[in-house]
Amino acid sequence: MAYREIAKEQALSLVGHKHACHVMLYAATDAKLFGRIPLKHIVLMQMRFDGLLGFPGGLVNPSKESLESGLSRELREELGMAIDVSPEDHFSSSLSHSGPKLVAHFFTKKMTEAELREAEAAAVTKATDHGLEVMGMVRVPLFSMKNDGGFPSFLSHSFISNSRSQLLSALRVLELVSQEDVEAAVGKADKIRQTKAQ
Ligand SMILES: O=c1[nH]cnc2c1ncn2[C@H]1C[C@H](O)[C@@H](COP(=O)(O)OP(=O)(O)O)O1
Predict the structure, then answer these.
(1) What's the N-to-C CA distance of the chain in angstroms?
(2) What domains appear along the chain, each with residue ranges and CATH number?
C-alpha cells in the first residue's frame, strides 16, 4: 500500500477513513553486544500474528476517543501495562492512496531502559494479546555486521503497511542511526531481498 504524509488535523477531518495508531518505544542504553559493540539505543517492534513485523498499536475511532487515548488502550492489550502517549509524541500521519481508506498515525515515545524492560516483561506475562495477536516484542538490531547481519538483515524481512518507512524515518529524524548508516543498511537489505527472490 502506498502512503503520503498528511497533517494530523487534516487527517482527522477526513470522512470515511479508518485511523490506525502505532508507537515506536525506544530508550538509550549503555549495553554492548559481545561486550564490545555499543548498542546505544533500544527500539521495540513486534512480531504480529500474521508473521509480519510492525509496531504496537491498532485501530482507533477518533469520533469516540482521542488518538492518544485509543493508542494507550491498544498498548494495554498488547503490552499489558499502561503507557501514556501524549500529543507531543506524535511523529507523523500518513494517508493511504491505494487500497483501503486508512490513515496511519505514528508516535514515538522515549522511555528509560528500565521502563522499556518492564514493558517487554509485561508483554509476555500480563498482556491479553500475547501469543494471540502479538507473538512477541522484538528489539531492532541497529548495528551492521559482516555478511549483512544485524540491521540490513532485519530490514530484509516483511513489514506490515508502512511500518518499515515509519521505522526508517524515526531512526533518521531522532538521530538514533545516522542518515548514512540507514541508507547503507537499506541498500544491503534490498540486495538480500533480491537474492531471496531468485
Ligand atoms: O506498525 C504499523 N504501522 C503502520 N500501520 C500498521 C502497523 N501495524 C498495523 N498497521 C495497519 C494494518 C491495519 O490496516 C491497521 C490496523 O492494524 P492492527 O494493528 O492489526 O490493528 P487492530 O488490532 O486490527 O486494531 O493498521
Answers:
(1) 23
(2) 3-140 (3.90.79.10)
